[in-house]
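Dear colleagues,

As part of the handover before I leave the project, I'm documenting each prediction I ran so the next person doesn't have to rerun anything. This entry is a single chain, and its sequence is reproduced below.
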Amino acid sequence: MFASAAAVGAGLSVAVDHVTGAAPVPARVAGYAVAVPVAVYLLSVWALHWERHRRGLAPLAVPVAAVLVLALPLVPATLPLIALVLAGLVATSPGRPVGHR
């Protein structure tokens, strides 16, 4: 989980270098440099919390989001779309009451 979080930062660096022209990599490669670690991070956090939230359709949201993230480098504007998927995942996740353990 921690390695994938660090790899997101490295992927973002590749994406910035692609946009600025500092790295001669195709847009799809730059997109996957971010998408793969984001998907690995999502799935690793999902696996850690599987026992707590395995009822209903809510547990399926994270794997579906990971698959969507992995498909997004195939279309333009990969990074904003990844951000949109992650924001949607947060918006649809069931919240816990304040002070609830």
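Residues 27-48 form the longest helix (22 residues). The chain has one domain: 2-91.

All the best with the project,
I.
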